[in-house]
Amino acid sequence: WLVRMVEAIHGRIHQRQDIAHSIRDYLEQNYMHDLPQAAAAAHFHLNASYFSQYFKQQFGQTYVQYLNTLRLEQAKRLLRTTQESTEAICARVGIPNVNYFFRLFKKMEGRTVKAYRQANREKS
Asked: What is the DSSP letter of 17?
């Protein structure tokens, strides 16, 4: 009985890790789309409230923080490697509101998009 119980607990732990891995993969593949937390929770057949708590526990930040970080990392890559307009980059990374993107970028990076782009051009 004890062995079966330990095996069941072990299986549950691995299942939780697999869900976290699946969530990370899903977000990395779909960050550029409109992706409300409720939709992500539904995709994994989880209650939205539970998903929110689970996400924070597994990733150490909220769903929105994680998604914004992922989007900004992709935007920074595009700012460094392309000459695309900021508006085009915003659309590509799933942030259609350019003003929101500017505010978010400044908050998370501590500098403007223009300053970031200029600094990375000078390095090239």
From this structure: H
Question: What residues contact 62, with CB distance under 8 A and at least 6 apart?
Answer: 52, 55, 56
Cα–chain center distance at 28 = 7
Looking up tokens 């994994």 gives: 44
Q: What is the pLDDT of residues 10-69, one digit of tens each?
A: 666 555 557 888 999 999 999 999 999 999 999 998 999 999 999 999 999 999 999 999
Query: Distance (Å, rounded) from C-alpha 41 to C-alpha 33?
Result: 15
Kindly calculate the radius of gyration of the chain based on its CA atoms and give it in whole angstroms.
19
Residues contacting 24, CB < 8 A, separation 6+: 59
| Pair 98, 90: CB distance under 8 Å | yes
Q: At what angle do helices 86-93 and 98-109 cross, to 10 degrees?
A: 90
Residue 53: per-residue pLDDT: 96
Unique residue bearing structure tokens 């994680």? 66
